[in-house]
């Protein structure tokens, strides 16, 4: 598990009020974990705060359905920023 995946698990676990180990990386945030669209948007805001300068548009947030997909996107964005420096 990557550090990004671990951080995302913690963010979602706080929202669901469960142990991070109980948050699967490959399940849909909305369909399987029961987050509604407002919860997902709150998680997106927390992601943007935790991983600057990463930003997630509404469209991108909806396209990234699992934490593993989000982690891969975040890591890719951070790598691109580091390459540009």
Please, could you describe this protein's structure?
The relative contact order is 0.17. The protein contains four helices and no strands. The mean pLDDT is 92. The longest helix has 18 residues, at 67-84. The protein has one domain: Non-ribosomal Peptide Synthetase Peptidyl Carrier Protein, Chain A. It has helices at residues 3-16, 37-50, 58-63, 67-84. The chain is mainly α and 85 residues long.
Task: List the defining traits of the structure above.
85 residues, mainly alpha, Non-ribosomal Peptide Synthetase Peptidyl Carrier Protein, Chain A, 61% helix
Derived from helix and strand composition plus strand pairing, the structural class reads: mainly alpha
Radius of gyration: 12 Å
CATH class: Mainly Alpha
Fourth CATH level, the homologous superfamily = ACP-like
Give the ordered list of helices and strands: HHHH
The third-level CATH topology is Non-ribosomal Peptide Synthetase Peptidyl Carrier Protein, Chain A
Domain unit count? 1
Residue share in β-strands = under 5%
Shape annotation: globular
């Amino acid at each position: 598990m990557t550090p990004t995946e671990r951080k995302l698990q913690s963010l979602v676990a706080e929202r669901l009020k469960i142990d991070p180990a109980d948050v699967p990386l490959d399940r849909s945030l909305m369909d399987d974990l029961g987050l509604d669209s407002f919860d997902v948007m709150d998680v997106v805001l927390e992601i943007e705060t935790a991983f600057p300068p990463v930003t997630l548009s509404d469209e991108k947030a909806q396209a990234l359905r699992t934490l593993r997909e989000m982690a891969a996107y975040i890591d890719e964005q951070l790598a691109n920023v580091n390459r540009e420096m």
